[in-house]
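Appendix C reproduces, verbatim, an entry submitted by the partner laboratory led by Prof. M.T., so that reviewers can inspect both the input and the predicted structure.
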Amino acid sequence: MPYNNTTTSTLAAYGAGVILFSLIVGLASFIFGIIIYWRIFSKAGYSGARSLWLLLPIANLIILIMFAFSEWPIQRELNQLRQMAGGRPGGQFPPQYPPQAPQYQQPGQYAQPGQFPQPGQFPQSGQYPQHPQP
């Protein structure tokens, strides 16, 4: 089957579309990855800009190793706060378990045991007052 000009231009347009789509998806994935690592480094207590080191071939391994095995700034701050709270891990928090139940006073308005009706004193089904029908 011989190729004509229309088939060649169709294939070229299809190839250009695939390349353009791949570039857009790749760029979006790249930007999304930078944003994710920026947030991870920020939550760990480092500068988010440190995530840009992941773009360099050898530096990315060094940064990930440092990130995995070093004490994070947020951990350092947490340890300082725990020492200030009581000198032991956890400080004064959480409170001792089980917590003490609050002591309630018996209010005087409750009925005394002798004031309740006895089981035979309740009205039976035919004893209720009947209202005349209009």
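The two ends are 100 Å apart (CA to CA). Additional entries are available on request from the coordinating office.
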